[in-house]
Amino acid sequence: MSTMIILCFEDNPRSCWTMTGKKGRQWRSMCKGLVLGTLLTSCMILLYALSTPQIHLSLPEVPVPYSCAHRPSQLHPKPTTNISQQTSGQTCTPKVDIMFMKTHKTASSTFLNILFRFGEKHRLKFAFPDSRNDFFYPSVFQRSQVKDYRPGMCFNVICNHMRFNASEVAKLLPLDTTYITILRDPAELFESSFHYFGRLVPFTWKIPGDDKLTEFLRDPNYYFDKEGFNSFYLKNLLFFDFGQDNTLELTDPRVEEGIKFITERFQLVMLVEHFEESLILLKDALCWEMDDLLFFKLNARKGSTVSRLTPELRARALQWNAIDWKLYQHFNQTFWRKVDAYGRERMAEDVTELRRRNEDMASICIEGGRAVEASSIQETAMQPWQPFGEKSIMGYNLKKNVDKVHRKLCRKMLMPELQYLTELGVNLWITKLWGHIRDIINW
Questions:
Q1: Pick from 271, 242, 109, 243: nearest CA to 184
Q2: What pTM value is reported for the model?
Q3: DSSP secondary structure string, 179-236?
Q4: What is the mean pLDDT of the chain?
Q5: Strand 98-101 to strand 178-183: parallel, antiparallel, or no bridges (unpaired)?
């Protein structure tokens, strides 16, 4: 007599499964895996809690120096091409005090690599998190989360993932700090976030079928639980990252207030879809050099794992992430106004030059000239962090015969974010431990 198991989710009568014999044994095995995963996840949450520094509610207010440049005299002025400084013969000095608001799934790891190299070049002081690669996200940022922080300390750059808290950031960085961030088309961002974080959001576990993204977008309100663990990853994630309420109705006046607040705080909002143009605007705003902008695309997914959104699914994704869409549309307009002020023809010439230099570096640095799947990456130190359940993030192989002049730069440009953080002195024991546990669970 075979065993029969009938499984129904109480809050989801549409997903009711019947299993017999072998299928029943598979279900029991899956249950054991879920129990193990739950226990290990609970241990990790406990570790995260134990490692969280105490929040000092009454930190003394010690003024931060106006500038924290390690050796200002070494920041040589150069002839300016800044659109606000067109006077012939005028010079500018590279700006080194930078707040980069690192949003999720927006090519921000690629930009972080640029910032890390610029910081090393000018011997800048980074405000890093302690024991992990973010500032205890999704909790709002506090100064006390900075590694070895003491009131009055001088930092040039802060750039790791955080939930933005303007007042706390302002008490950490100099007055002349430039605030920068980056946005992405919300439909594409939602697809990427659903793929990357979906398994970490428990309410997605009850979504039936293989194509969970399509099923979720068919009726998102049916599945979404705004109080659910990690639910913020799957609704207006950009607005959430900026410290705002991602569950507001679009007509709520706090949405406009939030966008106005971001507009007033950030001097440059870059766009993933126009990444090279964004870098040219950055170069102009901060008086950087073209060589400071060189990059290889990091943390890219292999094409077979990307869900191509139909026009209908794209419309549904934008409707579901309506606040992010409003935010993106606003800054898309301000972005192109900046491009117009810079000059469209001049922009096209500079983008062409940047692409040429990147192609030259790719031919010098990258084995085969392109990214490869994780299984084909030969050096462990070049393996990027992978999402649960698969190895979909691509990486690079460094050429073995790179000349001595370019060897160090090539390695830095190809280095994944976590490895670069470690090289800069960040202790990532919690992140690394979580990675080992993830591999053991083998989702």
A1: 271
A2: 0.83
A3: EEEEE--HHHHHHHHHHHHGGGSGGGGG--SS-HHHHHHHSHHHH--TTSTTGGGGSS
A4: 84
A5: parallel
